[in-house]
Design brief:
The chain has 768 residues and is an alpha+beta fold. The protein has a domain of 176 residues: Phosphoribosyl-aminoimidazole Synthetase, Chain A, domain 2, CATH 3.90.650. Helix content is 36%, strand content 22%. It has 27 helices and 28 strands. The strands form 5 sheets. It has a 7-stranded mixed β-sheet with strand order 8-10-7-11-9-12-13. A 7-stranded mixed β-sheet has the order 23-25-22-26-24-27-28, with helices on both faces. It is globular.
Length: 768
Amino acid sequence: MKVIGLADSELESSLRKAGIGMSASEARSIASILGRDPTLAELFCYDAMWSEHCSYKSSRAVLREFLPTEGPNVVLGPVEDAGIVSIDDEWCVVISHESHNHPSQILPNEGAATGIGGIVRDVNCMGARVVATADPLRFGDPYGRESSRVRWVAEGVVDGIWQYGNALGVPVIAGDVVFSRCFDYNCLVNVVAIGVVRRDEIIRSRAPPGSGEKGYDVILIGKPTDSSGLGGVIFASDTLREEEEEANRGAVQIPDPFLKNVLFKANEDLFRLVREKGVEIGFKDLGGGGLTCASSEMGAAGGYGMEIDLDRLHVAGEFPPEVLCIAETQERFLIIAPRELRERILKIYNEDWDLPNVYEGARASVIGRVTTHDRYIVRHRGEEVVNVPIKHLTGGIRYERVWRPRIRNLVEPDVRMPEDLNRVMLDMLASPNIASREHIYRYYDTEVQGNTVIRPGEADAGLLAPIRERDFGIALSVDSNPFYGRISPYWGGATAVAEAMRNVAAIGATPSTLTDCLNFGNPEKPEAFWEFRESVRGLADAARNLWLKGHPNQPVPIVSGNVSFYNESPEGAVDPSPVIACVGIMRDISRAITMSLKEAGDGLYLLGPRFDELGGSEYYRLIWGVTGANVPVVRFPLERSMIYTVIDAVDREILRAAHDISNGGMAITAAEMCMLSDHGISIDISDLGDMRSDKLLFSESSGFVVEVADGAEQEFVSIARSYDLNPVRLGSVSTGDIEMARDGKMLVRLDPEEAREAWSSGLREAMR
């Protein structure tokens, strides 16, 4: 394709007509390295590999500057498809975190389903058994001007998740959902998957040592390549425009969970084979960027070149080479293995698991070899259509983006004290951002595989016991508050980390690792890039200062993640949304607790003082229609002490329930603890300071409300004081109403059934 000698305007026009999204300057740099005009297939390969989605060209420098990725428990950091941390000397947890935002806005069902499909492949290709997923979701205002579209997107996304996940046989154990007008035209569908693997059975997504010298086979398994998902990574690296919606539908992949299930079982046989033979293979899923991305990254990661013959691909029709290179056909993996295993591997997939009869055209095919040269070469019909330096293709391109603070001119509102706090409580409990998520997770199979200990909705985090003969469990939580990010991207990032860790601690697990999915607007706009940079700085500071328990000054490592830019439409960008997942390890699952109250007469305690921090709160937004300015901040020593106190108290079996304070503040937190129990509460906030009562009740400053077992209150106070905390006794669990008083005056008295009806119906009504 002509590049050299064309004016910028001519070149840009030529690239767009060909369906290529790169800039003229990027095309020129490719031609300069090659010393010639690139072929059309080469430009398509570079377009995918140099997309924001694949190359991290805007974000990589910021991530490297701030994020802590190492730790004593880290087995594999964020260098491959998933991160790995140790559970004990034998077992490891594998975790990956991705986004599928643009596809889910265009085709909600297919977009969400393929998001799940891609993330579980990332975990499986490390040699792991996939044991759970989580789904942090962000939708538009269900009562706003785009309500019909918002509800259509939300319903489709939820359907896609449960239809794919249930058929695949992987439980959803965690998730959250936020509704806001900023997501009207750009929903966020983030997905997390975790798996378990023995430390000595980990498989890497790279060409193994010696594979180039020995000419290892490159084997493609799964669905026949078609044109589905073509240009998906380019589509994900641009702003959404309504007038282009129909044209973009082809960039959304087509899922098949039944085939995926069969592939996972066949993969287990592959893993068993390589263990028996004592050989190392490379194994990688085909996701964004398709065959080109998977094969070139595996070769480059091993320090080798790669030769691919497209005529050997199993395909679903006649397609030009550029389509075969970058199509994102789902349910595919790539294997790099010794030639002496070729027939055994082909037999596993084509005969033992009979892929051709499971899905028409599916199979395993040898499509190339690893080489010792430094080139990435692709042939089609006997001719070279791609011949480029493999490190140049995979190394991407880097931009030093300009950043400039966004000025919002936010102020604290002067609102009056509500006359009827009962009404305020009921309205907040019914808010779609607080109400029960049962309307969503009732569709999910949360107990498939039989390992789930704590299900969605029962606690702040999910918990599973993936190894039957062992006592340990894996906890998972996902969190982010875009309303905080709107006020302060820095504190939005920091609070997301803190809340994710609090949620894991609330069941008694110790935070072990973090992942991030960073959802922002157009990085070419200085204000948007500043929001990204500030959020990363905030979450990194939280990870560095909250520490791995038992390892002072050691950050909680961030071992996996994703950056999703261009979550923007002509109507505007999403609020800064750094979604954090936290994995915790529970040494003895029999000690885990939930958030529902257990025994009348038990003491209720508050950990964490209340501050005048209602900026971005549900109270301000829902009741008064304002954002505010005083966003919650993370006081790192205080936060660390609260988390450690709860973990230790659960371990000593003196807490019966715990719930972290977040959306809605202390009052909503305490009321939610009644929702899944037959109990009420009687609390008094007289000793919490001199702030106005509504601010004390609804401030979203971090903390916990905990139920302390009768007779164990002194021991709990002693634990808290050992961490320099002064817990406040709020009151006790009762058999009556939800009561909150101050200085002898009853502020709130709710019938638990009335409160439960508001809480259980809010999300159902919003998505009706």
